[in-house]
Amino acid sequence: MLRSRRLGVVMRSKQQAQANAARHVAADDWEATFRQMALYDFATDVNIGFVLAYFRSFAVPQISEALLATGEITQRPGKRSTDTGIVVYEIITHGFDSERGRTMVSLLRRVHAGVPGTDDDFLYVLISLLIAPLRWLDSHGWRAVEPTERAAAHRFFFELGQRIGLEIIPSSYDEAAVFFDDYEASHVAPSAAGIALTTSALPAFTIKLPYLVRRWDREILGALIGDVRVSVALGLPSPARGLTAAVRALLWVRNLRTAHSAPSELPVFASGAATTIYPTGYLLSEIGPPESSR
Ligand code: HEM
């Protein structure tokens, strides 16, 4: 266990604990529990995990080749990564049974119709959205993830998988983790497609880094991924020990501050809000690849 996480657990202030209790959601309300995690309590970390999952899928040649073939990531990398985030956060924010949630699930079904890939490939991409954020939290989160939260996160992606038509989905977080590791052990490999996608998608990652460290964007992405096999597959340099240590130190300071500060009252995602890609906000009909390629 990393020191930062231990410290985060120990340092959770009384004030923080009380505030969390006040916003308590029933343990069996998995949608609300995961919403609370992703939008408030672990907002930054869950977002980092989603970004890492996005890049990680490029480390599987058959997935990266299918993605490269449509040209969305190479020709419109900013829109593609923004839209991917919007789809997931719209569902988290409004719920599967809301109109916006249903619209996003329909979009997912539509854009994947005809995309080449095995059931395992689709399951892997789905499960990576669960495992990457949770493993990131286990290593770098400001406090430990509670069992009800882990179960809620699993339940959320189980539901998403069912709604987009996957037939076999691991029935617990632990089973999902085993599937994820087994799949990666036999599928992660370097490929020209994976390297091309990483190069195209990188600027959308770089822009989020503090200006002074942007020149080390590839090394930083490698350090955050924290898995040499995946970094090699993406054509990223192995992070120097000093850089990894610096990232850990920054996270340690961040965790210390988070543990002592008042919980965020504002969600990390606001539906329809302006972004670099949508300077005046967006309509759900604008999300996704052009109509002709769906
Ligand atoms: C079930 C797991 C998956 C989830 C949750 C998922 C998520 C997404 C999301 C959110 C989008 C919308 C992006 C946009 O709005 O532009 C998208 C589009 C797309 N996905 Fe997936 N994806 C999954 C599996 C896969 C797999 C396994 C492949 C390839 C083998 C794939 C290939 C594509 C393609 C080709 C598009 C259309 C946009 C483009 O051409 O890049 N997806 N996916």
TrEMBL record:
GO terms for molecular function: oxidoreductase activity. Pfam families: MPAB_Lcp_cat (PF09995). Residues 49-252 form the ER-bound oxygenase mpaB/mpaB'/Rubber oxygenase catalytic domain. This is DUF2236 domain-containing protein. It comes from Cryobacterium lyxosi. The lineage of its organism: Bacteria, Bacillati, Actinomycetota, Actinomycetes, Micrococcales.
